Structures are given as structure tokens and as C-alpha cells.
Amino acid sequence: MSAIKDSKDVLRQGAVRTIERRAFLKQGLSLGALTLLTGCDVTDQDSVQTALNAISRWNDRVQATLFSNRLVPTYPESAAVKDFRSNQYYGEDAVPKIEGSSFKLGLSGLIDNRKPWTLPELYALPQTSQVTRHVCVEGWSMIGKWTGVPFRTFLERIGADLSAKYVGFECADGYYSSIDMASALHPQTLLTFKISDETLAPKYGYPLKLRVPTKLGFKNPKWITAMYVTNRFSGGFWEDRGYNWFSGI
Amino acid sequence: MNTDERGTVKVHPGVVRVTHWINVVAIAIMIGSGWRIWNSSPIFDFSFPVAATIGGDPATSQDVHNELGLAGALQWHFAGMWLLVVNGLVYLVYGIWSGHFRHALFPVSPSAFLRDALAALTFRLPHRLGVYNAVQKALYLGVLLAGIVMVLTGLSIWKPGQFQELAFVFGGYDTARLIHFLGMSAIVLFLVVHIALVIIVPKTLPAMITGRAAAHAPEILQESAG
Fold first, then answer.
1. CA–CA gap between residue B63 and residue B75 (Å, rounded)
2. Which of A42, A129, B78, B112 has a CA that sits 20 to 30 A from residue A212's CA?
3. How many Å apart are CA A161 and CA A166, to the nearest integer?
């Protein structure tokens, strides 16, 4: 208390400017120290985190505005990596091993024909291949070749409401994600069955992986068991843990 | 220059001072969070000390999110980018429109640079607040250029699909990412020199806050560092 009183006296004595400058410098230094030296615990403060989340939502909108149907670059087949890296939120030996003969892709939401699809039925759809760059949110990237049915073709075949906002996915390992309809309808978005001309190995998402070359790797769900079309925002596994939802590239 | 009743002159315009200090915050956010992002997938075989990075407590993130604080770092980076870019644009537009760049940073000739660099290295370079010598001009222009390259390579690795022409200019995604790292390194080197010189010539610090310095201060002219 006496310190406060003392400083008030000093202020009255006309040394205002010096004190203010020192306080400004001190605050500037502690801000610098806080952000640079402490590993920044300020992220864990609710108000800061709320602001960061709000900016991330704003960035979703900016990215949706930037998004267009222009194609991402494609590469010659020779550029495709054969031994592709696989990531999941647990160890590789724990990836789901799905029995293809009994597999059915479940459909729900704003879809006219919600009959589940077997693999032979899916394989009978027109297929195409692409050699594109997979960009991981961690920073690494890798060029691969994927083969499957254009997702737009599949959405049209099942009578999905193409004016809905989102398409969501549920996966055999508990992973889940959702994408905007514009990205779902992008000509290079594929529901894939193969990587490097071979049926997806378990670690690559057998039997179904969505390839969205316009988005970061974690927006390309593997081991898809169910999908739905909706107008209700439903986030995703990493998205609910702070990663940007749109994550377009 | 107009001398006021306290015998000081204006050496830094208000816009330059405000954007300078906002930039301090923006750069701290971008470098701190950028280092954490680097750590998640380093190009070269080293990591930045986590204590020097931004993005939330790694142990907490591991417990709650099953990840080492990359999500928080990305949130900071893509929030800080707005502060950096908007503030940078205000500074650039002001600098060009007001003639600040023309007066303060140009001309800078190779011969003048060599002369002043030699003088600085032998501690004979005078320092006048608000008037930049050729070494300072070259450094400030260089760091401005580095900042522009950082924004452009940043856009290239954020949107290598939507901004594929830009990414192409920087040699594609992976090369743009490398240049983004090298640009950061250049800016950090600049900051080391910049802050070292402020420590050697401390009266430059209040001048960047108040904008004013003593008009008749022969000791400033005799300062040995640039």
C-alpha cells in the first residue's frame, strides 16, 4: 500500500512522463518474456483460447471464400512415392483390420437412398487415378498415386443433397471428420480403394480412404465405415482438438 | 526539424513508432509459434527449445489432446499472420505514401555501404537519431525484403493448391518451406544485431517510443556504434 501511495506522490511531483515510460517498457518486456520464455502458458487461459478459436473460425470462412474448383497440381507417376508414410493417432500395429467381404458403408443424413454399400458395389463405379501431393499439418509432404471413384459421382449416385453444407465421416478406429460440400464436390476429391496401384493396405485405410487433395492430410479420413450429409457443423477428431477445421491448401 | 520547448526534435513519425511496436508483438508470435511448428517436422536435424516456443503447454496438450501443442502453435501462427500483414500493410502504404522510405532508406549505394560498414567495424561510425547510415539503410531494406518473402512463402506453404503459381515461383511446396525457414533465420539474425545496437546506443529506445530526441546532443554524434 505504501508503495502505491509513494508512487502517487512521485506522480504528483511531476515525474509522470518518466514513470509512464518505465511502466510501458516494463510491460513490454514482460509481454516479451511471457511469449518468448515461458512456452506461453497464455494459450491455456480461457479468454486467449476463446479468441484464438474465434480467429480459427474466421480463417475457416476466409479459406471457404478463397476456395475454387481449380485443380491442384498433378505429377508424373514416376514422382509418386511407393512406400507412403502413414499417420494415425496411435501406433501403426493398432490400425483397424477390416474384413472386406462383410464390409458395408453406412449412409445417413440428407441422402435419398441410404442403402448401405458393399465393396463390390463400390468397385463397380467409374474409377479414376490421380498423382497429387499430400500435405501434412505437421509440415511434411509426399506425392502419391490414389485410385477410386470421384466423390461427386458417388454423392450424385446416392442422391445426396448437394446444396447441404457438410459431408461427415465416421471411421473404424473412432476417428471422425467433416468437410464442406464445395470441397466434397471438387473434381479431384476421390473415394479411394487403391494407393500406388495396390488395394489399400490396412495402414492406408482399407477398404475406403477419402482423398481430398485440396485439404491437409488429416482431412483425408481412412477406414471410413459411415458417412452422412448434413447442414449441422460436426467438427472432427483433430478439429475438436484445436486444429483448423477447413484446413484447405 | 522543429525543436520544441524542451529542446527535442521529432525523429520517428507516429505511424512508424506504432507499427514498430505492433510488429514486435507480431514477430514474437510468428517466430515463437513458427519454432513450435518446425519442431513437429523439422527440415534439418534440430529442434527449438520448447520453452522458447508458443503454443500451449506441451504436457497438457499431450494429456488432453494426444499431441504436443502443435494445434495451439498453428492457432497462434494463423492469428499472428493477420496482425503481421495488416500492420505491415499500414507501414508499407504509409512509408511509400508519406515519402518516409524515400527519405529514410534511400539512396543506399554500395560505396556508401562499404564506407559505413568499415567505419562501424572500426567503431568510428557516428549515430544520429532518425538519420540512418548506409549500413542501417541496407539492413532495414534487407529485413523489409525478408518480411515480404516470409509473407509470400508463408502463403505458398499455407495454400500450395489455391496459390500454386506463387508456390511455383518459390520452387514448389518443399522449397518454399525451406525459404520460409531461411527467411526466419535472416530476420532472427537481424534482430540480434538490431537489439545489440540498441543496447550499445540505449537512447535509440526512448526515441522509438516518444518519437523525439534531444536536438542539441553532440554526444549522440559521437556514439561509436551504428
1. 19
2. B78
3. 10
Q: What is the reported pLDDT for A44?
A: 52
Evaluate whether ipTM surpasses 0.90. no
Do residue B75 and residue A139 have CB atoms under 8 angstroms apart? Answer: no
- Evaluate whether residue A57 is within a structural domain: no
Rounded to a whole number of angstroms, the distance from the CA of B159 to the nearest CA of chain A is 4
pLDDT digits (tens, 9 = 90+) for A184-227: 999 999 999 999 999 999 999 999 999 999 999 999 999 999 99
Domains in chain B with CATH codes:
8-221 (1.20.950.20)
Is the pLDDT at A151 greater than 80? The verdict is: yes
Distance CA A3, CA A179 (A): 58
How far from each other are the two terminal CA atoms of chain B, in whole angstroms?
22
pLDDT value of residue A92: 82
Q: What does the pLDDT average to over B176-181?
A: 98
Window 185-244 of A: residues touching B by CB (8 A cutoff) are: 213-214, 238, 241-244
d(CA A74, CA B163): 14
Phi first, then psi, for residue A131 (nearest 5°) are -115, 105
Total domain count, chain A: 2
Residues 72-131 of A with CB under 8 A from B: 72-73, 89
Cα dist from A5 to A10, A17, A158, whole Å:
9, 18, 76
Report the 3 state secondary structure along chain A: CHHHHHHHHHHHCCCHHHHHHHHHHHHHHHHHHHHHHCCCHHHHCHHHHHHHHHHHHHHHHHHHHHCCCCCCCCCCHHHCCCCCCCCCCCCHHHCCCCCHHHCEEEEEECECCCCCEEHHHHHCCCCEEEEEEEECCCCCEEEEEEEEEEHHHHHHHCCECCCCCEEEEEECCCCEEEEEHHHHCCCCCEEEEEECCEECCHHHCCCCEEECCCECHHHCCCCEEEEEEECCCCCCCCHHHCCCCCCEC
Q: List the single residue in A with minimal CA-CA distance to B173.
A: A141
Q: Quick one: A137 and A171 in the same domain?
A: yes
Residue numbers of the domain that contains A32: 2-42
* Contact between A109 and A230 (Cβ < 8 Å): yes
